[in-house]
Amino acid sequence: MFSLNLTQQIAYWLIFLEIALGLGAIICIALARLWIDRRRRLRNERRRQLVKIISENLFTDEQFNIRHIRHLLTDPLVVLEVVESFEARVTGSRWEEVRHELLHHILKPQVKKRGQSFWWHNRYIATRILLVGSEKSDEPLIFKLLNDEDFFIRMLIARCAVSIETKTSTFTVLQKMASEPPSCRFPYRYALIQGSLAVHKFIMEIYLETEDPQIKALCLNVMAYRIYTDVLPFLEKDFHSPFSEVRLGIAKILSSNPYSEAFDILMCYIEDEEPAVRAAAATGLGLLQDQRSLPKLAERLHDSDFSTRLQAGIALKKLGQEGLQVLQTQDADINPLAYKIARYVLTRNI
Amino acid sequence: MFLLEIFNPASGAIFLYWFETLQFFILIYFIVLNSIYIFLMLYAFTVIFARQYKIEAEHLDMLLKSEELPSLSIIIPAYNEAATIVFCVETLLNLSYRHKELIVVNDGSTDATLDILKSVFHLDRVHTCYEEPIPTKLVLSYYVSKIYPSLKVVNKINGGKADALNAGVNACQTDYFISIDTDTLIQDHEMNQMIRWMFTQADIKASGASVRVANSCIVQLRGIEKVIFPKELLPGIQAIEYLRAFLVGRMGWDCIGGSLIISGAFSFFDTKAIKEIKGMDTHSVGEDMEITVKLKMNLMNRGMNSSTAFIPQPVAWTEVPRHLGVLSRQRTRWHLGLIQILWRYKRLCFNPRYGWMGMLLIPYFVFGEALAPVVECLGYLIVIISLMLGMSSPSFILQFAFLSLGFTAILNLFCVLIEQITFQKYTSRSDILRMVFCCFAENIGYRQLTIWWRLKAFLKILTGSVTWAVVTKEGLKKFD
């Protein structure tokens, strides 16, 4: 089928190619090893020297001057890592001085160029620099990076956007959070929860002003992590919102802040069509410990949703003797689902 | 040929025609398969390098210190694991990811597995309180540790690994779960990298990670303390085989939505997606492949993204067999599982409704994996027959053998190169030398043995003796 000579010639060439590739791969392995080791050693050495110089400077009155250590500041990632490590451990005027020198003479001048770079690595370094020290003037770049294609950059810059404490930046973070799939919202939520009192006030203002139910729900979601003295009038207009996420947000706030005034709305929510709202309402009613909720909670022990049944069981236990009686009288044959919950709640220290 | 023509010239010509046709098809098979390997390797090389570059620059702690991180469960099916279970649970409890719970499923062990767990972790028997959407063998009792509240133990009647995993999934209250074997060791930092990757890929329902060979490594309570390339030949060759399979095979297929297999030694799943497909098939020998195919098929039927992700970072480390007998049983079982699943899902093969999976992935697994030992065995037979009949010269046969075996060696060498440029797990010179040696040694003897072991799977199917072979492991050296 093939000419033997041609086949043999091809075979010879392929064998030659294989040998060349094999030898090439072995040489590359050796070179890679040497190059990577050298690079790592060099970086570690630079980092070690820089840390030493900064540490020594922190305990002297000498002014920190970068002119003499320029050779150690050629790799911005090394400088950034050193600044980040000190930032996490050291405070005080001496460190502020050193930080200012490194940030404003070495790192900050690179931010704009790196932040607009095509390369992910550059944009990422810009994000980290902004996280160490950002100002209101950096807002346009922060907003640009907030729409970056890379999730890791977006989630880091969200913290930065929250830290500059403006209403626009807070709203932009909320908008970005809304555009992400639910499982990817946690870094934004964390950034907003960690925000200052000013940021929190902005969130409340945004909640009142916006008509977008998703933004409203996200505001409520963040607000649910705080304790309020009187939040009912504030939430009143959305008690019967047609959007289940908004009702869920309100139910969560009310279930983490036990107001006796919230009883009626929680009693209404325990019959909501959305299972998550019913479960949150059951949790809230458990905290209020109002005996009037007993029949409704007993009814929810037979709910089709597992979470609601469980929360209703826990709430009944919190109601005291009457609630315990409801749980104890559940029959395994008549209501196996309610019985399972009752047995679990009664035997566990909840 | 000469002999055949003397006796019957006509049949000699027919034989020659068929023989040459077969030779031609085997040559085409060899070229196509190796071209696929080259493509997969080039793709894997690019992706791994880019991803590692990114991961190196990432400040992972910034993400992991968030209190808002999703919780995940680690499910550990255990059957007669009295010797290893405490070490396994303790290493998992030591993982730095805080939002985790451990679910050990005691699958009707006949040894002291449950008693040991009870006494070491102060287990408290509680009533179960979770829905059981996946039917399993009867759950006898449920325990929670008094000293580690995140440790739960499900005690059930024996039903096999898949059934135990299903019971674990039922008990799982978190959005994601990881399933691991009791002899799998997890590297903390790499696991965090995997979690970071998964939590940021919203529509990915399943993911696997590189599994490496832990033989010869120094193991402590924190997991692998020092990575050493296996000092014995058989585990060494398997380590290279694993490297090739994970870095080229699994990573390469990511370009069309992921491979068909997510290793049972370490896999990451979306709990809801697994509950929806009613968990794993308890009658399947290769449950890890079965769940992946079933999940992908289900997602495709519902018009959802069916991609699975693969994380090349060496997250999980496992002990491989040190003796040929044990290895033989393992490989026969793996191949048996592969054939069984491909047969069960045969309707997917060349089915355009299932996209790349139906048109390329399944056919590749049928022809490039399941039938590979048959074709390779035919290749060896042809070589022998053509030598006996004087149809090919010994030098030509030698060239062809060199070419074919050399290709695998080069593929292995490139995998070692990827490892050295990116993960750099093996650092000492002796490790690297042993790795390079094993790249070549795999082709002499070991490769031919694996063909035979995989052919035995076909024999088992033909004789109807399909059983779950027990693979005994000797345990890793642990230093406290």
List its traits:
heterodimer, A: extended, B: 480 residues, alpha/beta, ten-stranded mixed beta sheet, 15 helices
Approximately how much beta-strand content do the residues of chain B carry? 5-15%
Coarse morphology of chain A: extended
Helix/strand order of chain A:
HHHHHHHHHHHHHHHHHH
The value of Rg of chain A in angstroms is 30 Å
Query: In whole angstroms, how far apart are the ends of chain A?
Result: 80 Å
Task: Kindly state the number of beta strands of chain B.
Answer: 12
Work out the helicity level of chain B.
40-55%
| Major beta sheet summary of chain A | none
Count every beta strand of chain A, where a strand is a DSSP E run of 2 or more residues.
Answer: 0
Instruction: Tell me the number of helical segments of chain B per DSSP (H or I, 4 or more residues long).
Output: 15
Show the largest interface: A-B, 50 and 46 residues
Would you write up a description of this structure?
- The complex is a heterodimer of chains A (350) and B (480).
- The model of chain A has no long low-confidence stretch (mean pLDDT 88).
- Helix content of chain A is 71%, strand content 0%.
- The termini of chain A are far apart.
- Chain A has helices at residues 4-58, 76-89, 93-115, 120-132, 139-146, 151-163, 167-179, 186-193, 197-209, 213-223, 232-235, 244-256, 263-269, 275-288, 294-300, 306-318, 321-328, 336-347.
- Chain A is mainly alpha-helical and 350 residues long.
- Chain A is extended, with a radius of gyration of 30 Å.
- Chain B is an alpha/beta fold.
- Chain B has a 10-stranded mixed beta sheet.
- In chain B, α2 packs parallel to α14.
- Chain B is globular and about 85 Å long.
- The chains are: A mainly alpha (350), B alpha/beta (480).
- Chains A and B meet through α1, α4, α6, α8 and α18 of A and α2 and α14 of B.
